[in-house]
Amino acid sequence: MSNLVFCSLHQLEVSTNWLKNNMDANNKSRTKCTNKYNKGSLLVFVISLILVVFLFVKIEVVNRKAEALEAKIEKHIQRIEDEIKT
Asked: Rounded to two decimals, what is the model's pTM?
């Protein structure tokens, strides 16, 4: 009877150790996976910020060009109006 109890306790200890080792391995793989997702998420965030900055720079450049063209057209209109008056 004591031999049976000893074998059962030993088997329980082996099973417990196996579970602990596998849970640690699963936690490590989850940690690695989580780290990969965090790094990927950070990379996507940085790229999106850079693209937003480029977008605002492009909008500003287009706005300045439009203002310059508008000023040029106004000068031409003014010159035409002056010629008509004379």
From this structure: 0.52
Output the CA angle 54-63-49, nearest 5 degrees: 15
pLDDT tens per residue, range 70-79: 999 999 999 9
User: In which element (H, E) is residue 42 found?
Assistant: helix 2-85
Q: How many CA atoms lie within 13 A of 82 on its CB side?
A: 6
| Token digits of residue 49 | 């910020």
d(CA 34, CA 41): 10
Which is it for the CA torsion 45, 47, 50, 52, positive or negative? Answer: negative
Rg (Cα) of the chain, in Å, rounded? 37
